[in-house]
Write a structure and sequence with these properties.
Length: 78
């Protein structure tokens, strides 16, 4: 799937991922998706996630908050 999305991104410069059908994602899956989005963003490709169900969105928020807190703590601790 990643290879297909990369091919589309090269052609379009923008990807919209409709997550309507995604009923579950675990933390490693969220981290992998965040990493992939970050890689594309660094190449100037915008990724938009739409229609995430509440339980999927809450997992994104929990993982995102944890990653942000880890970054804040490690930046201050050194």
């Amino acid at each position: 799937m990643q290879r297909i999305l990369e091919d589309v991104a090269r052609e379009e410069g923008h990807i919209v991922l409709d997550l309507r059908e995604l009923e579950f994602i675990d933390e490693p899956g969220v981290c992998q998706l965040f990493s992939f989005i970050d890689q594309l963003s660094q190449r100037g490709i915008r990724v938009e996630l739409i229609n995430a169900q509440d339980k999927v969105l809450s997992k994104f928020l929990v993982v995102g908050l944890r990653l942000w807190l880890d970054e804040q703590i490690f930046n201050k601790v050194g």
